[in-house]
Every structure is written in C-alpha cells, then in structure tokens.
Amino acid sequence: MDVSRAEGEAPASPSSCGWYLLTPALAALGAYGGTVWTVRSWASCPLGNNAGNNVGLLMTLPVVWLCMTLLLHLLQLALRRWPLRGGRAAMWLAPLAGVIALTLLYRIGMDWPYHPPGGRCMDGYPLFPFTGKTGPHSAE
Length: 140
Fold this sequence. Notes:
140 residues, 54% helix
C-alpha cells in the first residue's frame, strides 16, 4: 500500500514517454522559428544573409536544436525531481515556456543589423549566438 500520496490522486510528474518526446519537437520549433526570425531581420543587409541561401544559419540550426533539446531535457529532469504546484498542466506548460525563453535568447544572440543614416547596412549576422557580427561593420 502506497501511503506517500492520497488515494485517487494523480501523480504530479508525468511518467509517460510522450512527455520526454515533447522536448525534441519543441526544440525543433524553437530553433526553426528563431532562425526564420533571424533571416527576416537580416534580409535588408547585403551581407546579412550569406549569399548562398543562408548557409551559415542553416549550418547553425542543428547545433541550436541540439543545445535547446539538451537544455529542455535538463528542465524536464528538474521538473521530475521537483514538480511544480500546478499539477500536470504546469508540468506540460513548463517546457513550452522554456522553449519560448530559449528562442528569444537565440534571437537576441543573433543581434539586429545596424542601418547607418544615408548608408547601406554592411553588417553580417553572428556565426553563432552572442559571438559578434561578421562583415566590415561600416557603411561605405
């Protein structure tokens, strides 16, 4: 007889495999959404989107997905160890909030182009978030 929880009460942490499969799917949506957002933000700069169809961003995408997946798995393991008070709904919504936060962090790390007054944007997006812009950084 299990006396650690009340009779008829559902466990607070999900133990199904589907909860863990949610992480890679959410990370894929976050990485793709952040990359699309970056491409659209840098579209006005000639150096912003590698001339070869955003090759740099497409090569970064799997690495960002892997990083997001690992961080979300750590979040899920922490939630399994220390469940939230909201029950199952909070346990399912926490990874969603985590991927939104990671997507925003990814987008902020890819920076925004600088458009000098009367000149052309000559920046390039960072090769990886928070590593600094590429390109000459000046208007010619």
